[in-house]
Design goal:
single chain; mainly alpha; Fic-like fold; 2 domains; 6 strands
Amino acid sequence: MDTDTPLYIWQAADWPHWRYDLNALAAPLAEVSHAQGVLLGRLADVGMDWRDSASLAALTDEVLHTSAIEGELLNVMSVRSSLARRLGVDIGALAPADRQVEGVVELVLNATRDSQAALTAERLFGWHAALFPTGYSGLARINVGGWRDDADGPMQVVSGALTRPRVHFQAPPAQRLPADMQRFLDWINAPAKEPALIRAGLGHLWFVTLHPFDDGNGRLARAIGELLLARADGSPQRFYSLSAQIQRERSHYYQILEATQKDGMDVTNWLLWFLAALHRAIQHAHTTLDAVLAKARFWQRFASTPFNPRQIKLLNRLLDGFDGKLTTRRWASMANCSQDTALRDINQLVAWGVLQRLEGGGRSVGYGVNG
């Protein structure tokens, strides 16, 4: 290899002067903007309560999947409950608070609801502390709320066996971080010179390249991307989740990031991928919105039905997406009642035409929402 050739993007002589082919990006930009308009047009036709429900669903996806990309699986009900408490959305009984969940929720909400506020080093330190409230990442103590110091060697993204590791990326040396991060923050807080969606893609990539913390850099990069997308949308409410789409395309996401880090300052290919993934995220949001509207129609249809509190709670669980088969036993467990009471609740709903018995599925009878 020619030793004069930069190995990583941050070693380029013209770092960080990003280049991209705006002509090549024009069509994808137009497609994403059109998709955003179609989605917002659908949302304009629903009431505020159901807009809030759609936003809650998108934010739940964002919190769950930005963690899942890093291999951290959060409890769905804990995430929904934490978000619902903070957003003032009534989802019935709430799950107990979970410190691990609360930190990610605080990060995502601060990035999206306060997107117009300046992004500062102190704000980033607060986000980082929210992700690691104990000061540990797993069993390793990390520097929380401060830039990494490379005391244990350069920051690298590595895979493979310990004896034969494969280095996918090495970040800039720690001594450069104060200056590099100040330049990044000055850019992100300055009036935009590039299209808003391109700015979101650049902000995500730039932060990932700097990798300024001991851990959590991926989640913080995606939060910065969400902050810039919220600015682009001109709304603190989120109705689609880019992190959920990245999780669905996780392997390709890492491939394009690695290739971009070794391909000079022209980042057109990264931006093409980013815009395409964003388009798919918006398209997927229509599925979520369909479920929200189906729930709205359900409660309108049965508005005069005298449900008891247990029935309301369990029907909401079914309408929000229920894993597995709803049986009398599971009803009793979730509603904290006897199986006899659960059976009476269910039989009443079947008689009213709200639930139907499902065919097959073994010895235990299963039930689902009717139609």
